[in-house]
Amino acid sequence: GSGKDWLPTLHVAVTGAAGQIAYSLLPRIANGEMLGEDQPIVLHLLEVPQALSKLEGVVMELQDCAFPLVQGIVATDDLRKGFADVSVALLVGAKPRSQGMERKDLLSSNANIFAEQGKALNEVAANDLRVFVVGNPANTNALICAANAPRFNPERFMSMTRLDQNRTQYMLAEKAGCKIPEVDRVIVWGNHSSTQYPDITHARIKGESARKVINDEKWIREVMIPKVQQRGAEVIKARGASSAASAAAAVVDHMRDYWHGAGDRWCSVGIPSDGTYGIDEGLWYSVPVMCPGGHYRRILNLPIEEFSASMMEKSRKELVEERDAVRHLIPKEFGEKM
Ligand code: NAD
Ligand code: LMR
């Protein structure tokens, strides 16, 4: 043996496993960057039938990496086989937008995927299941998935805004001329869409108020906020495809922090609203949380300035519209809670 004390094997599912995000993500999961270097895993790779032959190539490459932690690989287009016994499900598989589209334009093609996946997870996943939704529109897809998986506490379903948080952190560090880890308490509120609100009113740079350090409100409102809101579109325009390496990095960052704990660092993630901050219960709205390890705690009672409140309200309204557009996929029992 390697002399290491290995934990019991964990089953980890990734949908859209032949897609571009997965191509960056799978090797990082497989070498332990996300769940730990002492955590053996079985990878469950899910795809649609048309992409199974491409997926076969991805499986070959994963085998050829000879990752010590990988105890097995399941590659399938069958949801019940793919999600059997999984404790972590990363739902990446969905259509990406192309230039000129908003992410919510994907609802009609992608929403149904998440209803079907919720049902299958409900039937066959492990009791300790955690779900992280990346496929767009991620917040509302997480709502649909949770609503169709009543066996699990909705709190276990998260949607990704970590990429937006990372984008904001980078921009602040660049502007302040400091190191990335010196920037903390950046918040991304709301939807992973162009209405999101990257909020630095509580952020700190080297422990001091980021706003004081930056000392340029015009830059914050007229450059930073719109740039973060439009960054996904900017990448699509430049690359001809949506962000993949950075999206994979954000998945690893969030799930690592969630799983192992993030100390006193704040993380933003889309989770079911508990009604605080004026957000309707049951909307998947991105808020700041602390990660003690294996779960999250909402950061409550932050003072919200008028400008922030109006930005947060725009995103709330958009999420209500998205929810109303997919009511047919939300079972009545779950809908009654909203
Ligand atoms: P891609 O087209 O390269 O790959 C998606 C893969 O998903 C394809 O291989 C496709 O066959 C597969 N797929 C489609 N439906 C599926 C289903 N029902 N089950 C299993 N697999 C299925 O796209 P990508 O660039 O990897 O992006 C994937 C999704 O992630 C897109 O919706 C994109 O908009 C979104 N995204 C979200 C964020 C975020 O921050 N939340 C960031 C980047 C991308
Ligand atoms: C991103 O933020 O880069 C992704 O959500 C892809 C997109 O459509 O913008």
Q: What report would you give on this structure?
A:
The chain is of the alpha/beta class. The strands form 4 sheets. Strands 3-2-1-4-5-6 form a 6-stranded parallel beta sheet, with helices on both faces. Strands 7-10-11 form a 3-stranded antiparallel beta sheet. The longest helix is centred in the last third of the chain and has 23 residues. The protein starts with 9 loop residues before the first strand and ends with a helix. The protein binds nicotinamide-adenine-dinucleotide and (2S)-2-hydroxybutanedioic acid. (2S)-2-hydroxybutanedioic acid binds next to α8.
Summed up, the helix count is 11
Please state the CA-atom Rg, rounded to the nearest Å. Answer: 19 Å
Reading the helices and strands in chain order gives EHEHEHEHEHEHEEEEEHHHEEEHH
Outline the biggest β-sheet.
6 strands, parallel
Coarse structural class: alpha/beta
Which hetero ligands occur in this complex? nicotinamide-adenine-dinucleotide, (2S)-2-hydroxybutanedioic acid
How many β-strand runs? 14
Overall mean confidence score, pLDDT: 96
State which percent range the strand residues make up.
15-25%
Q: What is the molecular shape?
A: globular
**CA(first)-CA(last) distance:** 52 Å
> What's the helical proportion of residues?
40-55%
**Poorly predicted residue ranges:** none
- Strand order across the biggest sheet? 3-2-1-4-5-6
